[in-house]
From TrEMBL:
Residues 4-138 form the Flavodoxin-like domain. Low-potential electron donor to a number of redox enzymes. InterPro entries: Flavodoxin (IPR050619), Flavodoxin/NO_synth (IPR008254), Flavoprotein-like_sf (IPR029039). It comes from Sporosarcina jeotgali. The lineage of its organism: Bacteria, Bacillati, Bacillota, Bacilli, Bacillales. Transmembrane segments: none annotated. This is Flavodoxin.
């Protein structure tokens, strides 16, 4: 069974809700999932998981929140398989700054998949995009696994 660490930062709940939808989708696909809300408690050891998923909102003109930067430093390495999602709002700087924390994190971790970008709450019309992305993560990991073993 593939194991995922989902580490996410959320202030007003959108990124947390997105993380929960991803968790449910991965669990439905047979994966085991550990959730870690960044900034609460010790940072789990990424080496205990097959892959890591990082979620962040975007702040202050396209910035990555400080607690997410601290998390990245605490992890202190670039694990092989990192997938990234984020929530944001196009009202703050349009497409250019939309979810740019997620875009930067995906680049930093050399993520094999495009980061998932969600506008505000994932509930409603965007829910299907979250589910499809999480299924894509699972498919990607399974494909790699088949190639490696
Ligand atoms: C002061 C402020 C600045 C923001 N700046 C951006 C931004 O530059 N880019 C973006 O995509 N979203 C921006 N947002 C929107 C948040 O990222 C968005 O509401 C997000 O869903 C919040 O996540 P959370 O509910 O998990 O805390 C900003 C929000 C606030 C309040």
């Amino acid at each position: 069974m593939v194991s995922f660490l989902i580490a996410y930062a959320s202030w007003s709940g959108n990124t947390a809700e997105t993380a929960e939808l991803i968790e449910q989708t991965l669990a439905a696909g047979g994966a085991s999932v550990k959730m870690h809300r960044i900034g609460t408690g010790p940072v789990p050891d990424y080496r205990e998981f097959d892959a890591m998923i990082v979620g962040s909102f975007t702040w202050d003109q396209g910035s990555t929140p400080d607690e997410v930067k601290d998390f990245v430093l605490d992890v202190g390495a670039k694990p092989d398989h990192v997938y990234v999602f984020g929530t944001g709002d196009t009202q703050f700087g349009g497409d250019e700054l939309f979810c740019s924390a997620a875009v930067k994190l995906a680049r930093f971790y050399n993520s094999a998949l495009e980061p998932l970008k969600i506008e505000q709450s994932p509930r409603g019309a965007q829910e299907i995009r979250v589910t499809a992305w999480a299924e894509g993560v699972l498919d990607h990991w399974r494909h790699l696994h088949e190639l490696t073993y």
